[in-house]
């Protein structure tokens, strides 16, 4: 996201419950 880290978490945590809207979109796109 413009070269900035927007969220930091363990992989399982990030994939199960992303908090930042950009992370949510990335996870949703990967699951499509």
Description:
By secondary structure, the chain is mostly helical. It has one domain (1-32). The protein is 53% helix and 0% strand. It contains 2 helices and no strands. The chain has helices spanning 11-16, 21-31. It is globular and about 25 Å long.
Can you describe this structure in just a few lines?
The protein is mainly α and 32 residues long.
Specify Rg, calculated over alpha carbons. Answer: 9 Å
| Strand segment count | 0
Mean pLDDT: 93
Q: Please bin the fraction of helical residues.
A: 40-55%
Low-confidence stretches: none
- What's the number of helices? 2
The separation of the N and C termini measures 20 Å
- Structural class from helices and strands? mainly alpha
SSE string: HH
**Strand residue percentage:** under 5%
For the record, the count of structural domains works out to 1
Q: Biggest β-sheet: count, sense, barrel?
A: none
3D shape: globular
Which characteristics define this entry?
single chain; mainly alpha; 0% strand
List the helices and strands and how they pair.
Blueprint: H1 11-16, H2 21-31
């Amino acid at each position: 996201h413009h070269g900035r880290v927007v969220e930091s978490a363990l992989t399982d945590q990030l994939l199960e419950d992303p908090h930042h809207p950009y992370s949510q979109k990335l996870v949703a796109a990967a699951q499509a």
